[in-house]
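Open question from group meeting: does this chain pack into something compact, or does most of it stay loose? Before anyone orders reagents, we agreed to write out a predicted structure and look at it together. Recording both the input and the output here so the notebook holds the full record.
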Amino acid sequence: MTTGGARGARAAARVLGWVLLAWFSAAACGDTARSGGTPSASPSTTSPEELCTRVVAHWSREVLDSHTYGDYQSMGLSNGQYDILRSVVDAARAEKKRQGADAADALIDREARAGCADWYRSGGPGEGPWQ
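Structure tokens returned:
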């Protein structure tokens, strides 16, 4: 891949990360536009733990298929989420060799959820965006 191609891929990954983050954030806010600017009676919320799980699982699948790790910032991940991702991908690669792609896919969901649950149980992100 050329240097320009690598930059383009990183830029595309960064944009996708921000789009996913914006989508998940909007989903967590509920629909205020149709209710006159006030939250609906039963707003839909996404916990930080669930958001972590979704983003880590998404990028784990991308990394598993590409066989390379990207920059955590271009993925829109914190350092803690990236640590979870690396652990999940390592386990998924081993599972894919042993049991196949479907087993690796299921493992990604389980391990991302467990990793994010543990991370938030331990206090979650710190003060800086890299935490």
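Observations to bring back to the group:
Helices lie at 3-29, 48-66, 79-99, 101-121.
Residues 27-35 have pLDDT under 50 and may be disordered.
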